[in-house]
Amino acid sequence: MTTFTLNGNQVTVGDHHEHLLDALRVECGITSTKDGCAPSGQCGCCTVLIDGKARVACVTGLDKAEGAEVLTLEGMDPLEVDRYANAFAATGALQCGFCTPGIVVRAKSLIDRKGAGLTREEASRHLGGHLCRCTGYIKILDAVEAIAQDRIEVPVTVGGVGTRGAKYEGRSLAVGRRPFVGDMNAPGLLHGALRLSDHARADVLSIDAAPALAVEGVHAVYTGADVPGELRVGLIHKDWPVFIPEGGRTSYLGDVLAVVVADEPAIARRAAKLIDVAYDVLPPIVDAVRAIDSDDAVWGLDGNVLSRSAYTRGTFDEAFAASAHTVHDTFQTQRVEHAFVEPETTLAVPTDDGGLYVYSGGQGVWDDRNDIAAVLGVDPSLVTVELVSNGGAFGGKEDMSNQAQAALAAWLLARPVMVSLTREQSLLLHAKRHPIRLEYWAGCDDDGRLTALKVRAIGDSGPYASVGMKVLERAAGHACGPYRVPNLDVESVAVRTNNPVCGAFRGFGANQAQFAMEGVVDRLAELVGISGWEMRSRNVVVPGDEWGPGQILDDGAAGARQCLDAVRDAYDEARAAGKPVGVGLGLKNSGLGNGFKEIARAVVRFRSDGKIEVRHCWTEMGQGVHTVAVQVAVEELGVAADDIVVIVDTTRELGAGQTTGSRGTLMGAGSVADACRAANEGGREVDVDYEGSYVVDWTNKMSDPVEHPVIHSTFGYASQLVILDPESGDIERVVAAHDVGRAVNPLLCEGQIEGSVHMGLGYALSEGFPTDEDGRPTNTTLRQLAIIRPKDMPPVDVILIEAPQPNSPYGVKGVGEIGLVPTAGAVAAAMHDRDGEWRNELPLQNDSNRERVSAWT
Ligand code: FES
Ligand code: FES
User: Fold this and answer.
1) pLDDT band for position 656 (cuts 50, 70, 90)
2) Which of 64, 194, 328, 726 has the CA that lies 20 to 30 A from 426?
3) Which of 751, 714, 715, 718 is nearest to 819 (CA)?
4) Bridge pairing between strands 417-420 and 190-196
5) Could you tell me the maximum CA-CA distance found in the chain, to the nearest angstrom?
6) Residue 307 vs residues 108, 252, 466, 606, 613: alpha-carbon distances, Å
7) Phi/psi of residue 129, each to 5°?
8) How does strand 69-71 pair with strand 232-233?
9) Phi/psi of residue 286, each to 5°?
10) How far apart are CA 532 and CA 524, in angstroms?
């Protein structure tokens, strides 16, 4: 037993805990201290004060805690906690909030020691052990400075659309009071752990659970043989097995073989390792180019080509041949991990009426419900899924991760079961950003006006479809960037391999394509003899232009020019000062488009307790969709934001697919506004559901036989300027001008853009998730991903542009998705401006995170 003082009270815990964090969370009921990566000590979420010093609890053995004073946020002076909550909420220093309690504890230890003398630079160095994937750290440092200098503002409660104010639940999130799924509890709760495959491609001959079942505290082990319904799930194709059963074949290292259910998570994890699996190991198919023509990579499916997306417009060959200047180059982008800070956790609870209630942190609770019901072989009405706002997602929580296994275990045991992935498992299991090889041919006339573009792209999609075909479709659609190109010939292919699954990730194929497009635009500018800014100015789309697959752009396209113009002065000043500079210009659709009929519904209900419920169907993952819902309700109903309660669950049929592609703000605002109008017209009766909807049903598929297909209803635009220090080559400053159509909440929009630039700089410079010849990721920890640290994050000047989108609620375009589309191109251009070298491969500065060359030749 180990005895220590926790928040002023003496506690004694068992010695079986792997580390102090496990003891705090499992035995002591502490939830402000989060588990983002235990036991690796690399995210900072579990930071506590031990004898007054900030320590990460997941690398603190119980021997170190013996006799110590341990302080968590639960034990801090409530007034002091309030000061931190106010400062973080008021400055917009949190988005998903999963990292924030750990950062608050670190900030307290710094401020306790340094007081007002704490510099921003010192704070950024000390935050080096804290991963925040959402904010870009800028507003976190604003908050820390405000507290140190005792100039804390009271968070402004949001008003209607367009007001700047604190995030919904921001104060409680900041100090760990709003629970994530992993912080929840239920009477009789058991914990599950997954056993993943040991090989990317192997026949599973047998699975012997006996050694795991013999472990004290283990209640059950379930495998594919225990699934009463469907074995495979999936967002578009039902091809992703929830278990690989005996007799099946693994297709990547994230495949699940079994779930072990035990009294405590650590017991379940230990037992899962003991399951004895016999394999016949097969050579994996891991080279994307060769996979196109080789044997099947994936068990039970025909062929390795997941999709081909192609279109032509005009006559490329003639136009290219007649061009005054031409370039031909191949660009290679890398696989990237989302690194959301909260690993996937699901809690499934059997209900008294014979159903199942599932708490999920996924991005589409209706898809989760339908797939869980299919796996259990029951009617979907028996399954309710409630969304618990998650700790970041960025597209990586669209597919099911452990929802089906948690649901199965709870269903079969008739007990509540929580399943959490370790960070190592999370890295292996969920879908990544596609590595794409892009070959570009581009031409322009003497004046630099683009004449022709041909693109051939291959993306490694991993074994299961996820939304890989849509990502490569989007890469094809966005291949020409926000430019007028009269002659196009574009094809992209998504290939199945035994590498990690690739799917949705902020930008969704547009980032990869526009890194290449911006590269050829800059090369052509040099041939013409004009600046990168001027080249873009001569080619940028305007309303009425024919774009990409033939879409005639509406008035929303005015934002492209406005973004470019917004950075012009900074561009000219930097050049005049002799600083290397690069500009990137990008566009990204919002919503799904491509002929998909999109319907979102929302419900407004006036409750007898005076509160107003707003029910919608979107996942809050830090981006602020709940805040948008509140602001729209305030705008339309004229009520106070504090009286509004936002709920997402599947008890009402509001389902609208995944929260992806900046759909949440756009369609959420439209449907909530419509529900409010229904409430106003219906007299706002108490306990009545007033339903509203927002529909986008006017887009076309690329293949539709119409002259000018409307591929997407809405586009966001952004230009980013990257300015380097001429001596060191370090990034000195980024200017980011983003057209959001209408800024529903400028504070939150800024945060989204700063966070995107942080993510975009990592994409450009250092991040990656390569695999070896066995399909095994070479990065197994957060640190190896090489995400940019707070001290290396340059200042970002955010410029919000509001070029309203016709046919969109309040003119909204969305902000999250476009965020890092222009970044990598701008960084590559700035580096070229400094040393004259063209760069074709991401990440630009970290060879170890690039793709394996032999996989792409
Ligand atoms: S959970 Fe301890 S540092 Fe990440
Ligand atoms: S707010 Fe920091 S990880 Fe989401």
Assistant:
1) low
2) 64
3) 718
4) parallel
5) 82
6) 52, 19, 12, 47, 42
7) -90, 5
8) unpaired
9) -125, 0
10) 9
CB of 134 within 6 A of ligand 1: the answer is no
Residue range 443-495, pLDDT digits in tens: 999 999 999 999 999 999 999 999 999 999 999 999 999 999 999 999 999 99
Q: Using the 8-state DSSP alphabet, how is residue 845 labeled?
A: S
* Contact assessment for residue 649 and residue 385, using Cβ atoms and an 8 Å cutoff: yes
Smallest CA separation from ligand 1 atom 3, residue:
41
Residue 389's pLDDT band, with cuts at 50, 70 and 90, is: confident
Pocket test for ligand 1, best of 19, 46, 787 (most atoms within 8 A of CB): 46
Q: Decide: 341 in ligand 2 pocket, CB within 6 A.
A: yes
| pLDDT at 118 (0 to 100) | 96
- Predicted TM-score (pTM) of the model is 0.95
Amino acid at 763: Y
Question: Quick check: 357 and 351 in contact, CB under 8 A?
Answer: yes
Structure tokens at 496: 């199945």
Give the helix ranges, DSSP H, for 160-264. 170-174, 210-213
Q: Stretch 548-556: mean pLDDT, rounded?
A: 94
**SS3 helix, strand, coil % of the chain, rounded to 5?**
35, 25, 45
| Ramachandran angles phi, psi of 147, nearest 5° | -70, -45
pLDDT digits (tens, 9 = 90+) for 271-298: 999 999 999 999 999 999 999 988 787 8
The residue to mutate among 96, 178, 748, having the most atoms of ligand 2 within 8 angstroms of its beta carbon, is: 96
The span from the first CA to the last CA of the chain, in angstroms, equals 58
pLDDT band at 657 (very low <50, low <70, confident <90, very high): low
Range with the lowest mean pLDDT among 256-265, 442-451, 662-671, 741-750? 662-671
Is residue 532 within 8 A of residue 829, CB to CB? The reply is yes
CB 586 within 8 A of CB 618: no
Least distant ligand from the CA of 93? 2
Residue to mutate (ligand 1; options 56, 99, 131, 345; most atoms within 8 A of CB): 56
Query: Residue 96 is encoded by which pair of tokens?
Result: 């998903």
Band (550; pLDDT cuts 50, 70, 90)? very high
Q: What is the pLDDT of residue 697?
A: 80
Instruction: Report the DSSP pairing between strands 249-250 and 202-208.
Output: antiparallel
pLDDT of residue 270: 97
**Ligand 1 contacts CB of residue 36 (under 6 A):** yes
